[in-house]
Design a protein that fits this description.
The structure is a homotrimer. The first copy, chain A, is α+β, with helices and mostly antiparallel strands. Chain A contains 3 helices and 8 strands, in the order ββαββααββββ. The longest helix of chain A has 14 residues. Chain A starts with a strand and ends with a strand.
Chain lengths: 136, 136, 136
């Protein structure tokens, strides 16, 4: 059985943003057990799972990925859309646009400290669409 | 319901190669909605989703990942298969060998600018096999 | 059809550890074809698929990821849990906590040289829990 729908996120500023609550409020009638796929339909953003308790982790994730994939590298050719664009593509592939989460007893079966994060890599990325697929 | 088969890709040279069309032409009778898993059965290649419009993005992806994981690092021990081998393993784990894509209205539900890429990290990687699993 | 259960791994030391055998011995009565999801319920560890033959690859993976995400970066803010903590979160997102593997003829359909690895990023990470979901 498949249940599939889109979640349209409001624009977020560049950085890592906890969206577990945003996802959960869109999930209705989850099965007893199954699997959930979150697929972000963009090439300059990503979805990741990380520490949900201390907001400093999200901040440091942004710091670390910006350092790992610097802007204004003279080796980039794809530069017409601005200095944040090509790095955003690279970060999107490094962190991934698709993640699967188990569903257990009708809820996302995340670890105690795990949350779902939108990774917004553009300075002005605008609204982002996540296709949610629940299978059971 | 599961439908599973292999796609044998022809040899590609080192770099990022758009294979959306190659995948699509092997997908027959996709369900109305479901999920597609692409699993590349190799440890020196990867599959990623990224910008499909400007070929410079694929080129810059290759540039960036080569810079991030340099060859000839004197710290590597696993060097017998050549300087491109150990970096290829590292890149494979960073970009991932397995990706899930939603199926909607009988097609891969990719974003407007999203394409599926083979990431070939070896200088002479040869033919690569992708196991495709469609579930619905 | 969904079959779901937890695997509790014993504590592993920091590094990459081949756990294919550990996973396999917990998989009973796999379907003819399907898909397997491994989801590690932690934010300072990951699961990856890589070369299973030469133990030097696992060692070099650890070397490379440690170099890519160094400890004691003065830019980190989240430092109270020790110098290995924030780098562990970053590595966890880079390598991913969730991986899907096809099942074919009742077995994980890994390539000849592919194995499943626990990536333990903490110095003393303790026991780790993997939620296994088999769907077919």
């Amino acid at each position: 059985m498949i249940n599939q729908f889109d979640i349209i996120l409001p624009p977020f500023k560049r950085g890592f943003h906890l969206i577990t609550g945003h996802i959960e409020k869109n999930l209705k009638d989850l099965p007893e057990s199954g699997l959930l796929n979150l697929f972000i339909k963009h090439t300059s953003a990503a979805i990741t799972i990380n520490e949900n308790a201390d907001p400093d982790v999200a901040r440091d994730m942004g710091y670390a990925i910006d350092k790992l994939v610097p802007e204004n590298d003279p080796g980039y050719i794809h530069t017409v859309e601005g200095p944040d664009d090509m790095p955003a593509h690279i970060k999107s592939s490094l962190l991934s646009v698709s993640v699967n989460i188990p569903i257990t007893r009708g809820r996302m079966n995340l670890g105690t400290w795990q949350g779902v994060f939108l990774c917004e890599f553009r300075n002005y990325g605008g609204s982002r669409t996540i296709c949610v697929t629940v299978y059971y």
